[in-house]
Amino acid sequence: MEVSLILVPTDFSDCALNSLRYARDIARKQGARLLLLHVINRKEAGTCASYSKVPLEDVLERLTNQAKQVFRKLLASWDGADLVEETIVSVGTPFQEIAVKARSYKVDLIIMGGYGSRGKGGQIEEIFFGSTVEKVVRLLPCPVLCVPVGWPEEFRPEDVSTGQQEG
What we know:
Layout: E1 5-9, H1 14-30, E2 33-41, H2 42-52, H3 56-77, E3 84-92, H4 94-104, E4 109-113, H5 124-129, H6 132-139, E5 144-147, H7 158-162
Parallel strand pairs: 1-2, 1-4, 2-3, 4-5
Helix pairs in contact: 2-3, 4-6
């Protein structure tokens, strides 16, 4: 399997940032480019707008600008910035936006954290309907690599081609 474009959805949580390290290493080994995606959850933004009595469009604009700023800071200091083809900030339901971007950019692989900023416990919705990762796996025909936080730092890119890690 040739991997030339890897989608890396991120919510900027520790787990998502951990998956960025793996994406960087795999991209270097495979000669691939990275597409970084942050999705602003429209439902959560709506709740925030409602509580704060601020128009939804203003909340979305502020969250979009914050995400772009985080991407700029990340790329300024990250040793994988040279592999990044594009950073995208979109608004919608995270798993749906990931699926749309994966299809429209024709990515070969998705690498994402095992859980996001809410942590392992998640919310009641995740218990009944599944996590974002589970929904992405169900929707997409391309491979999805789920990287849990705390995965051993001894990972080596050469392990990707053999599928084996030394113990």
